[in-house]
Amino acid sequence: MSDVTMEDLMRVLAEAAGDVETADVAAADVPDTSFEDLGYDSLALIETAARLKRDFGVVLSDDDVVELSTPRSLLELVNRPG
Amino acid sequence: MVTGVVVTGIGVVAPNGLGVEDYWRATLAGRSGISRLTRFDPGGHRASLAGQVGGFDAEARLPGRLLPQTDVSTRFALVAAELALADSGVDVASTCEYDLGVITSNALGGFEFTHREFRKLWTEGPASVSVYESFAWFYAVNTGQISIRHGLRGPGRVLVGEQAGGLDAIGTARRAVRRGTPVVVTGGVDSALDPWGWAAQLAGGRVSGSDDPGRAYLPFDVAASGYVPGEGGAILVLEDAGAAAARGATAYGEVAGYAATFDPAPGSDRERALRRAVERVLPDAGTAPVEVDVVFADAVALPGPDAAEAAAIRAVFGERGVPVTAPKALTGRLYAGGGPLDTAAALLSIRDGVVPAVPAGVEVPPDYGIDLVVGAPRREPVSCALVLARGKGGFNAAVVVRRAAGRTRVGARVGNGAETRAEARVEEER
């Protein structure tokens, strides 16, 4: 399975829960900014996980997903081998 | 000393106007928001007319974050609340968040959102159903979303009473202010104009089957044949009068009284309880019938309910004893939004000294014995107004609003009852 890119991930996040509230976050810093600061709550992450499964076949547990803190950590979990 | 509970802000999302002044201009000019449904083709249904909110651009009016998680009804509620808070001048950021409450009514929930998610459930399976369905559907969501968006952590409540619930919310908000919460955002908003919501509304059995927008909803008319459903409503900001005066706020008027009653069981020979609601709300407001300048009627537009409402008004105020109106003839019945929108109209009647009319052509059966304002608004001083609402299932609610002491909103006087100027000016009373 080909890797999911950060661009893919941010698109799925936006579809799931709306655009990033980036007024005070530079675009390059978004992947390492906390979901809380980006305005995404745990429901946003669960919805994102459901869409990642549908669009990319990636199966993530809700319990794992809500523990994540940044887009980069979510991307790493998505692309984890095995 | 100024006491009581006053309305300092109004936000309107109505089929004939977005924002309080748009709505009021349309109402006085007799502009209707009723038309053939455009959200879907209603051709397969027995009714095709609705009061639809037009020109509402949710993407322009709300943060992108709120769009995936909100039904259209909640979007209306959020915008109405934002307008009401801005109108009130309450400085939310510098007020203790526990001093700010939210108490709203909703009767229909998030039909359109839920309809979409049900379709996904049945065609794609449960994994495709939005996580936001968990709260987007339910009656408490407007209170919750308004609370979260503005950081209002005082009393948060929701009342469900079909078309009467909006007045119950206002009455409950008044009580919350009296018990010590200085500011409470209240009112109600509804929308269910997707095919499923429409089918559910028609199942209620009181909807007009007419396809003539000008003649479909004729409250108290000899040929009344049901109501037209609408969407939208109003959100009001209620404040302790003393606190409002201390911050220099101007009030539209006072929420002076509230009463609710419940009808006897179907089939009972006992009288329905609307009259009792009127008889209770007047003493609650410390008001005698003769002091009431206008009644905003519930106005179902069916012979049975219309005759019953006319009888209740007649019993308390006497034969043609008080002007009666129903501006909802121009919007349709808005469920939880109806009572709050009528309350807004009542407050604007007080501000501007004018009673809006039901459309020309309404012909009241003489035995109703009510003085219905028909065709053109009536210019006359209004100090006190009674708002009535009935919800299917037995709910009755009544609210009295009256001119507040102290600083009140005074609109430009209305010429020939056709138009009112948008800007309100402040006038010190006495």
TrEMBL record, chain A:
Keyword tags: Phosphopantetheine, Phosphoprotein
Residue ranges of every copy of the Carrier domain listed in the record: 4-82
Superkingdom of origin: Bacteria
SMART domains documented for this protein: PKS_PP
Descriptive protein name: Acyl carrier protein
